[in-house]
Amino acid sequence: MLVLNCATKLLTLEKVLKGHFPESLKVYGAVMNINRGNPFQKEVVLDSWPDFKAVITRRQKEAETDNLDHYTNGYAVFYKDVRAYRRLLEERDVINWDQVFHIQGLQSELYDISKAVASSKRLDVKLSSSKAVRLSVVSAPPDTSLL
User: What CATH number is associated with residue 121?
Assistant: First the structure.
């Protein structure tokens, strides 16, 4: 996992993502906002640079969070290789699995891979909306009151 925080590299990433529309649109929008002042306190995580295969945008670790607010705990995903996306999800500290969140992206394998990784962690994943190419996944930590 690599957190991309160099302004020049973030501008380059924005241009590269623009060449992968419409699939990269969710991540492109987040990177564009980061490059224009970062009002939503996001950061970019990639598998590698400059030849990345998967990129995830997420809330900065330093930003104040509410573990029950899936809107502010949103992730945007774009990948060129679904296996690279899966490896990023499986890495420690890429996703905060202890909070409620959304994973959003425009690629068909997004739900299946996200669900498989969450299931391997014994988490419940629910499809919250599905349209032609838009997919949003919600994950919630297990209910420990039943244990």
Answer: 3.40.630
- Residues 63-75: tens digit of each pLDDT: 777 777 767 788 9
Q: Which two tokens stand for residue 24?
A: 């990269």
Q: How do beta strands 124-130 and 2-4 pair? A: unpaired
Q: Tell me which residue range forms the domain holding 70.
A: 2-146
Number of domains in the chain: 1
**Backbone angles phi and psi of 107, in degrees to 5:** -120, 145
Q: Decide: pTM greater than 0.85.
A: no
Q: Which residues pair with 74 in a beta bridge?
A: 102
Contact 58, 88 (CB under 8 A): no
* Inter-CA distances, 130 with 7, 12, 104, 137, 140, Å: 34, 31, 11, 9, 18
78 Cβ neighbours under 8 A, 6+ residues apart: 17, 20, 23, 24, 26, 27, 28, 54, 55, 105, 106, 107
